[in-house]
Amino acid sequence: MKTIRIWLALAMLVLLNACATVSETGRSQLLLVSKDQEVQLGLTEFEKLKQATPRARDARANAMLQRVGQRIAAVAEMPEAKWEFVLFEDPQPNAFCLPGGKVGVYTGILPITKDETGLATVVGHEVAHAVARHGGERMSQALLSQLGGQLLGSALQNSPDQTRNLWQGVYGLTSQVGWVLPHSRKQELEADHIGLKYMARAGYDPRLAVDFWKRFQAYSQARGGQGWEFLSTHPMDETRIAELEKLMPMALQEYRPAK
Fold it and tell me: Which helix (H) or strand (E) holds 206?
């Protein structure tokens, strides 16, 4: 019991000193890693990806990504970022942003984005992940989950193997379904929120973000749908569309059409 009390005291100390706030939404977040640690990890992983994944050779698509990326980056609240936008030759309809401002877009998403505004929807969303430090939050979640597992292990150290295995399994399942996955979906919706604001500030019509997500929804449905939301890292497309429509009055206030 003494060991458990020490672990709990250390955990409380860490938690009290790890609270932060997402500037664009005001949401409180837990960050157990420093921004420098996040950025260094992002830089390292992005270099690995650039070596392992071929670049797209389509000059027009590359130019469009650079144009969109620079416009979004100019309005994002991350002045210290070293933004880099790379188009990878990959059929996945996906994109990502690593800490520090390293954005990757796969060519597989271009038929769904269709045009520059569709691409701005995607890039705004990915840039928002970096600004909100969602990567650092996920690393912090993993550390906290590991700490919880160690505390549970200490509490059950004198229990039979069968009991320990049962409770460790229960802990793993409930922490994943009850905490990690819901929080991941919350981050995705937050990135939609911030990204919508960024694309509007950059001069892209935010109303067309809904059109992109409707096209993505049709793409998903043609391939069998998304499955159950509570078991997914991402919210259902219809959830995203509904949330974006609620946010549209805010986004339109930010919108200044590009000249």
Answer: none
